[in-house]
């Protein structure tokens, strides 16, 4: 029962939509172009008037006293990392580090690469 009214409405609508389209072509929108910068500014040239020449005071040059750093026993130590690729080769210095932590990290890295390592504490500067 509902089929016939539906078929009739579709039959009436289809011829209406089959007409040729009469739409206008799309409008072209032209945006104005604005320069991001203004015209170049010309700064005025200020004449440079030479002033008096000032020399440093004359006199003997005395260097500042050099104060040696305070080194307490046991604190000024450096740590040297030695490595060798095989047990019968001589030890070679890899590097000198300020803290034992740095030296230990480098030694562990070298061990992970397959080298034998040794860390020694030596007097610092």
How big a fraction of the residues is strand? Answer: 15-25%
Considering DSSP H and I runs of 4 or more, what fraction of the residues is helical?
A: 10-25%
Through-space gap between termini:
107 Å
Protein structure class:
alpha+beta
The shape is: flat
The parts where pLDDT drops under 50 for at least 5 residues are: none
Task: Give keywords.
single chain, 125 residues, alpha+beta, 3-stranded antiparallel beta sheet, 2 helices, flat
Verbal overview:
This protein is α+β, with helices and mostly antiparallel strands and 125 residues long. It has a domain at 75-125. The protein is built from two helices and three strands. The protein has helices at residues 3-17, 100-112, and strands spanning 77-84, 92-97, 116-123. It has a three-stranded antiparallel beta sheet with strand order 2-1-3, covered by helices on one side. It starts with a helix and ends with a strand. The model has no long low-confidence stretch (mean pLDDT 78).
């Amino acid at each position: 029962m509902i089929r016939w009214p539906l078929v009739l409405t579709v039959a009436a609508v289809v011829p209406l939509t089959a007409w040729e389209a009469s739409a206008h072509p799309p409008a072209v929108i032209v945006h104005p172009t604005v320069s991001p910068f203004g015209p170049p500014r010309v700064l005025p040239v200020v004449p440079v008037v030479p002033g008096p020449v000032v020399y440093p005071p004359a006199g003997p040059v005395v260097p500042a006293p050099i104060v040696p750093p305070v080194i307490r026993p046991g604190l000024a130590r450096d740590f040297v990392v030695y490595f060798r690729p095989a047990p019968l080769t001589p030890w070679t210095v890899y590097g000198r580090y300020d803290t034992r932590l740095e030296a230990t990290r480098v030694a562990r890295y070298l061990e992970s690469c397959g080298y034998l390592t040794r860390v020694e504490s030596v007097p610092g500067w």
